[in-house]
Amino acid sequence: MKKPKTELYLSIATVVVIIVAWFISTGSGSVSELFIPSPASVWKSFVEVLQDGYKGSTLLQHLGTSMKRLVIAYLLCVVTAVPLGLLSGYNSKVRAIFEPIIEFYRPLPPLAYYTILTLWMGIDEESKLALLYLAGFAPIYISCVAGVIRIKEDYINGALTLGANKRQIFFYVIFPAALTDVFTGLRTALGVEYTTLVAAEMVAATAGIGWVVLDASKYLRSDIVFMGVIIMGITGILLDKIIQLIEKQVIHWKGRS
């Protein structure tokens, strides 16, 4: 469904108000550049990093490194958490095996077990990918399980009455009915992985947009910090929109009465 014009205008107005308030607060001199850099400073830093790079790598290289880590871990989550979550929702015995493990680590902050991952896998890419994978796995798995559990028994009983076997019920009844929850989990996992990306790039990283933000903060370069945060926010929105477009194509019946 398209966003109504009124809601679209309100969203645009909110963004405009925030930008205007940013200009006013920094232009009046009431706020130190150290805490909130001016839009002009942030734009200048963006142009400089785009042209000259940051610490030996261009902006696109930093962003590409982060996206590579994010996409690899995310795809691994999709191909493992979705089938396992659907199967766990369909089979209570499978759910009883995996649920305690996931419920144990899910509330833990990423940095709590990142040190363990670095001990096991080292400080290279493997531990970073493992951290992102674990962060994204739980939301997808839980959403898939919930999507299967809340399916009405009438749907399954109706399929059984028509002579469907368990395999047909899973692929033609349960899977389509759970797709909405599956995509909710996919969107949630993407956001969780992106927020965990900064933690993943804290240890022995020399590139990545999250690393740029962390490194710039050490030198009180708030202009570069703001630039990095804005870029992460924009790319996060774009990635989420891609998931929404895929959802719209896959669940083409969603929203129809």
What does it look like?
The chain is mainly α. The protein contains ten helices and no strands. It starts with a helix and ends in a 7-residue tail after the last helix.
Quick synopsis:
The chain is mainly α and 257 residues long.
Present the secondary structure layout.
Layout: H1 5-27, H2 39-52, H3 59-90, H4 92-105, H5 110-121, H6 125-149, H7 153-161, H8 166-200, H9 209-218, H10 222-250
Helix pairs in contact: 2-10, 3-4, 3-6, 3-8, 3-9, 5-6, 6-8, 8-9, 8-10, 9-10
Largest sheet: none
- The name of the CATH topology is MetI-like fold
Distance between the termini: 12 Å
Morphology: globular
Number of helices: 10
Question: What is the level-2 CATH architecture name?
Answer: Orthogonal Bundle
Number of strands: 0
> What portion of residues belong to β-strands?
under 5%
CATH class: Mainly Alpha
Element order, helices and strands? Answer: HHHHHHHHHH
Tell me the count of domains: 1
Percent helix range: over 70%
Question: Regions with pLDDT < 50 over 5+ consecutive residues?
Answer: none
The averaged pLDDT comes out at 86
Q: Let me know the CATH homologous superfamily.
A: MetI-like
Instruction: Compute the CA-based radius of gyration.
Output: 22 Å
Multimeric state of these chains?
single chain
Sheet/helix structural class: mainly alpha
